[in-house]
Write a structure and sequence with these properties.
It holds the Pfam family SBP_bac_6. GO terms for molecular function: metal ion binding. Keywords: Ion transport, Iron, Iron transport, Metal-binding, Signal, Transport. This is Iron(III) transport system substrate-binding protein. Belongs to the bacterial solute-binding protein 1 family. With 346 residues, this protein is of the alpha/beta class. It has two domains: 37-136 and 264-315, Periplasmic binding protein-like II (D-Maltodextrin-Binding Protein, domain 2), CATH 3.40.190.10; 138-261 and 333-342, D-Maltodextrin-Binding Protein, domain 2 (3-Layer(aba) Sandwich). The protein has twelve helices and nine strands. It has helices spanning 2-24, 49-63, 74-84, 98-106, 115-118, 177-190, 192-205, 212-220, 231-239, 276-287, 289-297, 333-342, and strands spanning 40-45, 66-71, 92-94, 133-145, 170-172, 206-208, 226-230, 248-251, 262-269. Strands 1, 2, 3, 4, 5, 6, 7, 8 and 9 form a nine-stranded mixed sheet that branches. Helix 6 packs across helix 12 (333-342). The structure holds fe (ii) ion. Residues 96, 178, 212, 230 line the site of fe (ii) ion (FE2). Fe (ii) ion is lined by residues 96, 178, 212, 230.
């Protein structure tokens, strides 16, 4: 811990110097105006708190801008922002998954993301609308117990998990935003009828747990053969003691399957922000080199998406995951909730 703090402080110092140079250069963009951003911002944070705290500490060290965090989950916070409307105290919204961002976007509450920020995130990691941007990414994965399932018994597609032979053999956390994002991708890729059908099979076949870690723990303990979760729960546990994952192997569906969905975590600036310059600077920072290095070197094990920073080298590279192409702006959380409720999963 100590080592990383020092390293970040070093990075922050170097960055201050770099910023000074950039501000004097001719290429400065809309955001800085007559001076650097300053003051305070409030971030509604649905990302993992530990990750955002690392970002905030590095950002404040570099800019002096104070950041207040309000913590909640994706849908809880997107609903709150929509309810608060123009009066929202939020300057920035960060999520784990895209559907909650799409909800706030559809309510017309996001400002355009500064071009300098857009430019440092490749198109596949942000919505086509540029009303928000990807800040990190996570892959869908089936973690399984090798003693229970051999390699040739693994499903070819996530859709196979709805077949009768998978009854009682897999787990998920249907109430979580992580899992609902996977369903939103299925809906976008295969349409409503296919999604309804799959959810029906899921209700028959799967065991519900609260939280991805709990589902993985159940596989590890031999309670259930497999679980459909995100990759970082496995790598995070492995990096600690491995006590909840040592009996577990991650399986990637690849082949552009809905089960190979890579979910984009989002960041956006609210139109109603009273300190838009600082809010935009924060978004630029976390998608910039230093912000993305927090993903590369920290303990979140989420994928880096911006500024050409590679992901943590323990991870299967994003380029090898053969994820399906999905425009995150099109993911529809309201419809997913409706379909999952109909199927008796919520
Ligand atoms: Fe998560």
């Amino acid at each position: 811990m100590k080592i990383r703090t020092n390293a970040l402080a070093g990075i922050a110092l170097a960055a201050t110097a770099a910023l000074g140079l950039a501000a004097c250069g001719s290429g400065s963009t809309s955001q800085a105006g007559s001076g650097a951003a300053s003051g305070e911002i409030t971030v509604y944070n649905a990302q993992h708190e530990s990750l955002t705290k690392e970002w905030v500490d590095a950002f404040t060290a570099e800019t002096g801008i104070k950041v207040t965090l309000r913590q909640g989950d994706d849908t809880e916070m997107s609903n709150q922002i929509v309810q608060e409307g123009q009066a929202s105290p939020a300057d920035v919204f960060l999520t784990e998954n895209s559907p909650a961002m799409a909800q706030v976007e559809n309510a017309g509450l996001f400002a355009d993301v500064d071009k300098a920020t857009v430019d440092q995130v490749p198109a596949e990691f942000r919505p086509s609308t540029n009303k928000w941007t990807g800040i990190a990414a996570r892959s869908t994965v089936l973690v399984y117990d090798k003693k229970k399932l051999s390699a040739d018994q693994l499903p070819k597609s996530m859709l196979d998990l709805a077949k009768p032979e998978w009854k009682g053999k897999w787990a998920a956390s249907p109430s979580g935003a992580d899992f609902q994002a996977i369903v939103s991708a299925l809906l976008e890729l295969k349409g409503e009828a296919a999604t309804q059908e799959w959810l029906k099979g899921m209700k028959e076949n799967s065991k519900a747990y609260k939280g991805n870690s709990t589902a993985m723990k159940a596989v590890n303990a031999g309670e259930v053969d497999s679980a459909l979760i995100y990759h970082y729960y496995y790598y995070g546990d492995q990096a600690k003691t491995g006590e909840n994952s040592n009996n577990v192997t991650p399986f990637y569906f690849k082949n552009h399957d809905p089960g190979a969905f890579v979910s984009i975590s989002g960041g956006g600036v609210l139109k109603s922000s009273k300190n838009a310059a600082a809010a935009q600077a924060f978004l630029k920072f976390i998608t910039g080199k230093k912000g993305q290095e927090v993903l590369q070197k920290g303990t979140s094990f989420e994928y880096a998406v911006g500024s050409g920073v590679p992901s943590n080298d323990k991870l299967v590279p994003l380029a090898e995951l053969q994820a399906p192409t999905v425009d995150p702006a099109k993911l529809n959380s309201a419809k997913v909730t409706e379909l999952m409720t109909q199927a008796g999963l919520l």
